[in-house]
Amino acid sequence: MIVPWLLFSLVLCCSPGVLPLERLAGPEDDARCSQGLSCRLQEKDMLCLPGSIVPAPGPVMVPTYMQTEVVLRCQEERNCTPCVRVKLQLAIRGNLEDGREGKIGGGTEMAPGPSSHNASLHAHVVLSFHTYLTTRCALLEVEVPAALIQPSQPVGSLVYDCFEAAVGGEVKIWSYTLPRYQAELNHTQQLPDCIGPDMRDSVQSCWTLPWLNVSAEGDAAQLVLDVSAGQHYSLLLYWNQTQGAQKPRLHQDLAGPQTITLNNTDLVPCLCIQMWPQVQDSIRTNLCPFQEDPRAHRNLWSLSRLQLQLFEMTLSWFVEAPCAVPAEVALCWRPVDSHLCHSLPPHFPRENLSVNSPQEFPMLKAHPNLCVQVWSRGQLQLQECLPEDALGPPRDDALLLETRETQETRAFCALEPSGCTLLPSTTHTRVAFLGEQLLKDLRAGQCVQLWDGPVALWACSLQKYTHVRWALAWLACLLTVACVLLLLLLLKRDRAKGWLQILKGDLRSGGPSRGRRTLVLYSPDDRGFERLVGALASALHRLQLSVAVDLWHRQELSARGPLAWFHAQRRQVLQDGGVVVLLFSHGAVAFCQEWLQAGSPGEVPPGAGPHDAFAASLSCVLPDFLAGRAAGRYVAACFEELLPPQAVPDLFHTVPIFALPSQLPAFLGALEGPDRRCRESLRSHAAQITQSLQPALRECLPATQPGPGTSPLARRHSYGPPDNECSAL
User: Fold this and answer.
1) In what order do the strands lie in the sheet with 271-277?
2) Do 558 and 702 reside in the same domain of the chain?
3) What CATH number corresponds to the domain at position 278?
4) For residue range 546-565, what is the model confidence (pLDDT) as tens digits?
5) Do 547 and 512 meet the contact criterion of CB atoms below 8 Å apart?
6) Which CATH number does the domain housing residue 87 bear?
């Protein structure tokens, strides 16, 4: 069954807000005036000769405002013709005293009365009526009594019924006086086609037109042509492009009722339908039903293409599109080694889009980092940058925006991903750090001006500061290494000797773990426990393990979310043959038990924090253990002074569980994998790690530990303000 989608029937008799047209009886034209004035139709279908403007020394009558409306002139109930009614507002111009002395401008006459005070003013008003094929003029005579004559004041109105016109046509009407004292008034009136019920029922030329409905079945749009059997007519589908141009898409001669199916990809906002009977001089009906269809707008931008061109350092663009739609063109700045393009601030000018014609920002100098974007309905639709063979690849430049508040006062800001940073600034960004140097470069003429206007654009190079920064970084690294070696040589303590022995053993065996990837997952019970986890991760990292822990990736977690971050880390670890470490605490045990009891491990707990990778990981970790895929991929561990190994849920006993720090050697061996052979080196590393963990472990022991049955959500809210150094991390 066809489901109604968008009914565009040409029968609008039931549509609210459609007012019926006024009907006039009789074929004769008529003129009438407002109260106090007298007027008559003196001549119609006269020769239209407006002539030139003449001076008006005395009082003259002129039309000041024109209004038109469409009415129906009917011979019978269903035998009517569209007609245009003209309404004019009249006023007096000129000096009244000149008129009383008989100095009347042009053909205007001051008719004498019993006294000069009773004289009246006569004027001739011409209405000129133009269509595509015909031109007609009518001459009307108007008389104003002396009592109503007030210079520069309206005196009344004139109504003319009426000029006949064709259905769906366009007429232009001019009004002026004879002689002509001022430029003529003009107005354009569009006559309705056969859509309205008045036209369809009362105008005989509309009776034979076919009627159209638009409906949808699934993803396809259907044109349902309700036409009597045996009637022949033509159907044209076309794109209504700029300046009224029509680009035909489908033309068919049909007979009888028809249903035509249009694919989803054929719909664009300017797709219009034209229908007419196959008779001589038939009236054509136009309909554009997809102007507000969201699918049509999506198809429009998929069919559109944005092209950039460079001519003598001037950037121009050309948007090839089927339709002209409201859109804006804006510039954006693409930093070096980045695919993101940052839009310029809102006060920078934007251009209205003109499709299928070249455009450019005047006085804009091209730059390889400048790109062009097309925005429509608040969404980015198209984006294009210059190819590298035009101006080269993007440069390591900073874009500065200069705002001129006064002639002496200028403000500068640097465009960055976070917005426009005022210079100079104390924010911790690269451009803000170099703000003073960039402003000096700009004053010294070392920056290139790309745009000059209320907001000027400057491109300042950062290349030299990049070289200096790397040189300073290498120098700092060399000095740091030298100081560390000197310190190790001078120290005679046992710890230094132990670390030197470990380093010596690592050099003999090729390193403790050869950079094997390790992902550490834990429940952030409190800040003290997070500090303990950080100490363990740092110790593993010093042993050349490639360690990933959410403590070191808070910015990435905020940007991507904990679940996406965990999946990316887990995939990389397993692809490289690494291992995932489940570090259990009371909070981790409680979380797992709640998930297992709820039986819905596919949902993220509502109590999980924005950086809680452990809670987010359960949707992947628990299915691995339940399906028996955990062996070789996971190991479990716990700090034995905080949680006994027996408290770990039975599900996780399918993988090794290590009690730390007593089983640190075996734990390190599990992290290294089966290739490790030097056990003496493992014991040395374990001893050093145990010693480094003791301060953080001792600080966490006094903290209140909730029982294993406590809910993780309640447990996190139960921790009060920190009362020791461990909690005040």
Assistant:
1) 246-255, 232-240, 271-277, 285-287
2) yes
3) 2.60.40.10
4) 888 888 888 788 778 888 88
5) no
6) 2.60.40
Of 464, 497, 516, the residue that ends a domain is: 464
Residue 289 belongs to some domain of the structure: yes
Q: What is the DSSP string of 687-713?
A: HHHHHHHHHHHHHHTTS----TTS-HH
Q: How many angstroms separate the Cα of 554 from the Cα of each of 60, 287, 611, 613?
A: 83, 56, 7, 10
Q: Which residue has the tokens 């133009």?
A: 130
Residue carrying the six token digits 């005070």: 117
Beta-bridged to residue 400, according to DSSP, are 414, 458
Q: What is the dihedral of CA 315, 319, 320, 324, to 10 degrees?
A: -150
Is residue 380 classed as helix, strand or coil in its secondary structure? strand
- pLDDT computed for residue 711 by the predictor: 44
Indicate whether 539 and 567 sit together in one domain: yes
Quick check: helix, strand or coil at residue 551?
helix
Give the pLDDT score at 244: 66
Lowest mean pLDDT among 29-43, 338-352, 358-372, 487-501: 487-501
Residue 32's CB is within 10 A of a number of other CB atoms, namely 14
β strands within 267-357, DSSP E: 271-277, 285-287, 305-311, 314-320, 328-333, 342-343, 351-352
Which residues constitute the domain of residue 34?
23-191
In 3-state terms, what secondary structure has residue 293?
coil
Residues 557, 630, single domain; the answer is yes
In a domain, 383, yes or no: yes
The dihedral formed by the CA atoms of 664, 668, 673 and 678, expressed in degrees to the nearest 10: -100
In this structure, the answer to whether residues 573 and 676 fall within a common structural domain is: yes
The reply to whether 521 and 633 lie within a common domain is yes
Same domain as 423, residue 349: no
Give the residue ranges of DSSP H helices in 543-678.
Answer: 554-560, 562-575, 586-598, 613-626, 664-672
In terms of Cβ atoms closer than 10 Å to its own Cβ (0-12, 13-18, 19+), residue 580 is buried
Which pLDDT score is estimated for 424? 79
For residue 679, give the 3-state DSSP assignment.
helix
Residues 70 and 182 grouped into a single domain: yes
Structurally, the chain folds into a number of domains equal to: 5
Q: List beta partners, residue 214.
A: 223
| Average pLDDT value for residue range 415-424 | 82
Q: What is the pLDDT of residues 385-414, one digit of tens each?
A: 988 888 888 888 888 888 877 767 788 888
Q: 67: how many CB neighbours lie within 10 A of its CB?
A: 13
Q: Stretch 357-377: mean pLDDT, rounded?
A: 89
Whether residue 16 is contained in a domain is answered as: no
358, 414: one domain: no
Distance in Å from the first CA to the final CA of the chain = 67
The CA distance from 626 to 592, in Å, is 12
d(CA 619, CA 602): 5
Residue 88 lies in a domain: yes
- Assess contact for 271 and 347: CB atoms under 8 A: no
**Tens-place pLDDT, residues 137-191:** 999 999 988 888 877 788 899 999 988 888 877 899 988 888 888 888 888 998 8
Q: What is the overall mean pLDDT for the chain?
A: 78
Neighbours of 477 (CB within 10 A): 10
Using the 3D structure, point to which of 257, 272, 295 is the last residue of a domain: 295
